[in-house]
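ingest -> validate -> predict -> emit
validate: passed (alphabet ok, no gaps, 679 aa)
predict: started
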Amino acid sequence: MKRILLAFPLFFLFLLAAAQDSSKVTFSYAQQQTGENEIRLTITAHVNGADVKLFGLQTPQYKDAFSAVVFDSAAAPYLKDSIVQKGNLISQTDPVLNAPVLFSKDSIQWIQAVTVKKGDSAVIKGNITYMYLAGDAFASFEEPFKFYVKNGDAAGMTATGTKDAGGNKSLLWIFLTAFAGGLLALLTPCIYSMIPVTVSFFTKRSKTREEGMRNAIMYSLSIIIIFTLLGFLITLIFGPAALNNLATNWIANIIFFVLFLVFGISFLGAFEIALPSSWSTKADSKAGTGSFLGIFFMALTLVIVSFSCTGPIIGNLLVVASRGNYFGPLVGMFGFSLALALPFALFAFFPSKLNVLGKAGGWLNAIKVTLGFLELALALKFLSNADLAKNWRILDREIFIALWVVIFLLLGLYLLGKLKFRHDDELPKNDFGLPYLTVTRLSFAIASFFMVVYLVPGLFGAPLKGLGAFLPPMGTQDFNADDLPSGADLRSLGRGTGGRNDTAHFEDGLPAPVKYAAVMKKHEPSVAVNNGLVTYFDYKEALEIARKIKRPLMLDFTGINCNNCRKMEAQVWSDPDVMKLLKDEFVVVSLYVDAHSDVDIPQAEQYYSRDLGKQVETLGDLSTDIQVARFGSNTQPFYFFLDGKEERLAPEGYPYDPSVSKFKAHLEKVIAEYKKRSS
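emit:
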């Protein structure tokens, strides 16, 4: 009896589901770039069933049609022209609805053009409200949709909306960087010493000069094929999203730190990194000049044997290439291999020029050791990224700078010949038998000591604008000379007015940030700290301040490990005119999209985000959801400006562009619009 009673409601639900079956109409989505800044979005509705009629989109001619595609208001700045409807549409007057309608028994396409600036990305979302007729029964449903749109070399989308910390790189930039890396690899002992030997082998063992040149070209092409194939496999295995996500993942940064540390110590001569000797033995056994396959294995032998020199450089390039788009590793390895292969082909055409290479002496090891010091400096950057992400506070700004000072000081001493490593030769001797420095080596030593002199003031709080994108934020520095009180400040300390920051807050009329300030203060932009600019970390708190003092609100979507954000702050915000506008005319809130560690929002304020597909629990989640849901964007840095009613003062916002004049003009435009609305 109980089973029968249970069956009745289930049977009723079955009938209801059958009467309104959403599977009668299914949807597919596509996007295609049709212009420099134009992308075409296509929504296709597929009709499933011979007796199903899907009604079309409302048009001026058929105003009573019953299906509609509606974009969210945040997508409005990106939409271009009106939506276009395509398909085999039938027009007739429906007897039940008693109205003229458009319908399809096959499929309908809705096409919308959007405008997205080069290097930018956006989230375009909305809903499809549609009605269909199946037999004699009408059914209506609502289908939400969301497009992740990126133009050209825009940063990859992630689940948290975080942009690659180093900023996204164009394919041309990656190619040129990789090509320079290949030229650098040529100067390592493993490769440099092989050039004359290999070219001589082809020219002397070949029956004719033409055959020697042909073999050398095949050898060069083999090098390019091997490295490009490596880039293709990396792209195929990891894909663009996985590589982009590595940029801000703290575990990945720790792995990069360890790899760079090992590579750096290896370059200093502590040990050699080499692939298994059996690999090179097998490749060498198949090498010969009788066929392309034999020449290919000769090139493979070179790649394997030279790994101890090229491996660290390739590792660096893959990190750079992973911050580009899908083809980053492919283009990077092609550029690297092209530079590496060129000398073998060129000297085969002009063998008489081989004598310009000179002897492979100790200067090659000096280059290798110099690269080792640079590897150690880069390793610290990756450790700093992980440290900031997890809030360990083991590599604060002054510690980071101090370590760099030591590294570049030791490099300078090495280049002057004051330090010696295991594989180093003596300095060359002049006509009097005395060791001397070459002009090239002295120039690099000067550059290294210049770096030391430039870094030292940073230990006392100097902004170091030129390196602002690489250094930890000023908030992590325990000692800042600017915080020392002047004579007037000393007299006021007893009255409780405080130091520089308190004075700045009093002069600006802005209260100090409260929400999340205890944790996030260390990430406050260095230029803000040095110039007394008050920045908030909570959107609602900053909005309330902006309403009270009647100023526009500037939303600074940023990231803890966002290098381009630091570059904007160091080079653009620091401009006196820009800083004056920010301090006197705006309320600034810095919304960190990657602030997850130890920055949980109150339990009562947590909620589920449909845009992120997750529970918003951290400040980073909250900042990301604000940017994606309200502004249809998820790249950093990105600046949006609101009035007291939370309406945009500049619909397009301001993406990454390190032009002081453009940013200043944009701020002035926002101020003028705000005053116009307030009058």
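DSSP finds 22 helices and 17 strands in the chain.
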